[in-house]
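ARCHIVE CARD
SHELF: 3
SLOT: left
DATA:
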Amino acid sequence: MQIIPAIDLLDGQCVRLHQGDYGQVTRFSDDPVAQALSWQEQGAQRLHLVDLDGARSGQASNDASVKAITAALSIPVQLGGGVRTVARAQELLAYGLSSVILGTVALEQPELVEQLAADHPGQIIVGIDANNGKVATRGWIEQSHTDATELAQRFANSGIAAIISTDIATDGTLAGPNLGALRAMALASAVPVIASGGIGNLEHLLSLLALEPLGVTGVIVGRALYDGRVDLGEALQAIGDGRLQDPLSPLEGMA
């Protein structure tokens, strides 16, 4: 299983939010490029970026950092947050990102996701952020009535590379992943699932291994890495076990 360090960008800084609350911000670094390089040097095989400004407002304000990170790193970098048009997705891919993550638009304009997946094989990921099993959008500010698993099934044959399943209730809490929700998502999805939310220690990561045969191929880790509760090198040894190949690489090779 792949461990994917997260860098959340807000006003050009590396931050973490508590359960997606923009009023509860912890700032970790004002140098995103240095932080990205650090994760790569520690063995990360992929990096996860979130444009929090873009997620909230739909406006791109962290592009300079995104460009600098992709230019500095040799590993794949994926980004989500405010990607709501074909033009924006293509712009980001042109920066050198390996893939872009579509969240709000996946619910509101699923046909746009399908178009991008067809035009950019292996480079389109759907982000499904759920609160009590229901999809939340626009930086988690708006709550829908759509089941997360229902949305996952909508893209079963679309050609997307993966689904990032985020449980809002556990995100940033360090209390452990929502294994039940992840299991339901993996069973509903025909594409790889990447877990996100709640990782607070090595035991939490190990608990995900039971879901790997169902299709949970990766996990995004944020606050626990920054707090030192999880050591990336130790975690890679514990759950990587020589299986650090990129779960998206077969599709990326089609691009």
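SLOT: right
DATA:
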Amino acid sequence: MSAQRRTPGSQASLREANRQRIIDAVKKHGGLTQVELATVTGLSPATVSNIVRELSAGGVVNTSQSIRSGRRAQHVTIAHAVGLVAGVHFAARHMRIAVGDVSATIVAENHMPLARDHRADNEMDRVTILLADMLDSLDAGLPDLIALGISIPAPIDTATGVIARPGIMRGWDGLPIAETMERRIQRPVFADNAANLSALAEHRLGAARGKEDSVFVEVDDGVGAGIVIGGHLYRGGSGTAGELGHTVIRENGPLCRCGNRGCLEAVASGRSLLRDLAEVHGALKLNDIVVKAMSGDDACVRALGDAGQSLGIAIANLCNILAPDRVVVGGEVGRAGEMLLGPIRRELERSVLTTPGSLPELVPGQLGRRASVMGAILNAAERAQA
């Protein structure tokens, strides 16, 4: 008799679904006791115990004894036969640090706000402490770390390892970022531009999957782009390719933080939106603009539309040069969806020189706020093992 097929309601399917629930819970929390797993997943302690035993035998999870509330408990973490990789994304106003494996499956994560003009040395000290704590929660330590990837929202000169244009991130100027962090953790460290790393992650795991030539445009506090050509990240000769935000689109326009006038970033970034909307709404956060626009606030809708039009002009120029298959838009402002993408798309339709039906696809990013830190993990894993 032939083996029975698995049907959606079969015991085998149910057990597989329960296995995945346990794996997802352990990944999300970085490690849980079996009692905690039962609470989080809603499964019975006996079911959790049996599945954990199977997963441990299969090398999917590690188990170790721990003490919780004075009692012995079985602590469950994801097994990493090939080691752990960490990534940290330093943005203008927040930091995200994550630990994962070489495929960027994240098993521990932390996120916190930063002061506007934070200093590199302070934040690197904080990352060192946080990373040690996060690894400890995974029953690991710094020696178990293959590498650390750092994501910075500024162009990094590959020859020197420092930010290529002073003034873009005050407090980080003149600092060899990877080298400085390596001295703290005694592990390989690789630093790159945030948009580059987001482009890498979206190409491998997100909205640009399956496309050999793509552009990722990050619209956040600033504006940047990451370029993938022939399936590989393109950094250019000095490592600073993709600085879309610092292309001039408005002669004698607003002063940009790079020192030029009329840069795309000076008229269409999150920073410029906050500046322009301050007269109407006072102090806002980027997420507030998106939420208010979705609620129908005229000023925010108009501001996003104007930003989209300016972005569209710059992206159309880039498409005429590179002819990518797909353009992915991400970042905090990118979360506005069609309110931002609509005006961009109209400019692409108007200005990109291509045959009918061959216009590059314009889509939102799939990896959200994690894109850059996931890219940092992928980049560090690749370069450490090269």
